[in-house]
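ok here's the first one, seq then struct tokens
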Amino acid sequence: WAFFGGAERELKTDITIVTGTPEAARSAAREAAEGGFEFLKVKIGGVAQPTDLARLLAIADAAPRCRLILDANAARTADAALALLAALGDLRGRVVLFEQPTAPDDLAGMRRVREHGGVPIAADESATDARAVAELARERAADVVNLKLSKSGIAEALDMAATARALGRGLKIGGMVETENCMTTS
């Protein structure tokens, strides 16, 4: 965290609720909340939109104090992402970030979701290098850039972080399928 310019000595992390049934999502959310997690990252887009909505409602019910990060992994159109956010109603207020709602090259769609969705947008698959981060900022397509060392390498991730900061974008450090050992500092 210090290498990337972090200022805090404690971090709050999320836990991922994978795709599946609303019942499985409810169970996973309850377990995560009981385990002390405040942020639930919910994978969406791998199923029909009504199932995603049912899963999100089940998660919200099972973990009423948790805040949500939606991660579509580029699986939705801008219209579908906006429709899902609208369908959430008051629950949308608990969504703190919507990660990669549209295809990596659909920056206009990401900008639409950012401008009309009422939640901050994070770029993941769209943020491949520092040049892409600059384009995301120029197109006003994302508020936050998700850095992944396994995606870009350390040197490029540092360039991406510097570019994002210079252009007023927030940073998030994420992972792919690294082991627990790889994702911790102890």
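and now the second one, same deal
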Amino acid sequence: MRVFQSDQFVLPLPPGHTFPMSKYRLLREAAEATLPQVRVTEAPAASDGELALAHDPAWITAVAEGTTSAAQQREIGFPWSPRMVERARRSVGATIAAARTALFGSEGVAANLAGGTHHAYAHKGSGYCVFNDVAVAARLMQAEWHRSGAGTRGGLLRVVVIDLDVHQGNGTAAIFADDPSVYTLSLHGDRNFPFRKEASSLDVALPDGCTDAPYLAALDGALAETWASLAAHPPGLAFYLAGADPHENDRLGRLKLTAAGLAERDRRVLDALRDRAIPAAVVMAGGYGRDLATTVDIQRRTLELACASWQGWQTRPRPQPAPECGT
């Protein structure tokens, strides 16, 4: 299974900063050491044109040229630097590469070892997110699907975003608010950041302290509702944000899932996508464990389960998405 990384692009953060920058290198090393099926590739940088599929040109220019205001940098949570810009571009580029591999490369599943920057809006960044990798990749895959000629045969590429980070995917929800071709599901902590939520296609808010059994029951219900909503026009591509931050050890999570519960969550999502022959780009999203090794192990297990799903894809044909009405 192909995975894409950009962990050499490290931000110069001040001492004591809460963002676990070393997580990405540690996850890559763990994957390379324990998952022989994984093929790790350095991510390309997203271009201005690609970013403009989901972001305002003025925001792209401000980030690239370093003219973001102090308030904008505080909202993101990172000081501006050339490395910040390069890392943000590479994070988007890795999700683009994973989506392209899953959709067009006959792989079925691919992953970004970072990504899941779902708090970034079209016009601004927020919550450690500069650009919205999933939004850009979704728009680009729709365009490439059309250009490939597949759109002529199978209609518009519909996309489903399954966001299981503990924080609501507010930026993604806002970007796709008026776009019926992208269905956004967010299962998140009710009282957690962002404190002003946006409306996803389906939002499931969970109480503080939620444990494995009620979480998995809520997930089953949300997935059932999602598939029912999409029955008339099944998606041809999924983005799965497999955040580790619902874990009981997470500093920012407020939920109480165990590592076993999170693995079962991943298994249910990946099995549902494979059973429906929906290619999936998996991104790691959040994880802020008090013990960073625990976070890394949770996300390594996500990759292990993604590899198992990928192996299942190699032995089955993949149907084209259903055509749009009138096409």
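notes on #2: Residues 159 and 237 are 5 Å apart (CA to CA). Confidence is low (pLDDT under 50) at residues 321-327.
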